[in-house]
């Protein structure tokens, strides 16, 4: 068996050409797990040849709009095509709190559209089948099936409460998805000897002078500095570090090289990929 990891989006709230909002797709056999649903996730899933009916479950890291703005699109799209596929609602796993509140209410603005569609085609209304779990400082099991498990751990994205990273274990190996967080011990612990760590990345060193004294400066307190991230990846013994949620978005290979240089200066000597949308890695 092979497990694949596909970046369905490497962007951030500020739009950037070619970069959908944050998201990672992990596939193993017949299981397809989506993590976050940022802008244009449905489009990227389609390009990754994973239909909405083929998703097994979706996991949300936190309530920031760039990570959930595509969630109603996933749910409505799956519902609209369900008279063909008959797969039913998608299971959505969300940390309890504000992200869960969003997920449970996300279909409310579509009430008129839902009513109109039910007059014509749909026999049943769409369902946001949301399961919530409590954020814990150590890994807690959120989901498992056929030898594949998903665990969550609380990370540090304050002032956002209830933000988590996920660890996916399959018979082929281990994939960790940081969500949004500053570099923290929890992700380091979760990533010990991981085959792939998909981590958000913020080039503090490059931006510090330009944004000094502006409100934008605050982002450094809750995003992952690339130099410090190199230290984390080294200490955790990560085999392959994949950078995503790129701040600032690199426009070319020279811009990507600057991310790599930062991580190397932090001490990490393993394999690094600077994420591009639809980049796919195989493990196992
Ligand atoms: Zn965030
Ligand atoms: Zn974000």
Could you characterize the architecture of this molecule?
- The chain is α/β, with parallel strands linked by helices.
- It has one domain: Ribonuclease Z/Hydroxyacylglutathione hydrolase-like (Metallo-beta-lactamase, Chain A).
- The chain is built from ten helices and 14 strands.
- The protein has helices at 41-47, 65-68, 71-80, 82-85, 98-105, 111-120, 185-190, 204-211, 226-236, 253-265; strands at 3-9, 23-28, 31-35, 57-59, 91-95, 129-133, 140-145, 148-154, 164-170, 173-177, 196-202, 240-247, 271-274, 280-283.
- The strands form two sheets. The chain has a seven-stranded mixed β-sheet.
- α9 crosses α10 (253-265).
- It is globular, with a radius of gyration of 18 Å.
- The site of one zinc ion (ZN) has 7 residues, from α2.
- GO terms for molecular function: 3'-tRNA processing endoribonuclease activity.
- InterPro entries: AtsA-like_MBL-fold, Metallo-B-lactamas, RibonucZ/Hydroxyglut_hydro.
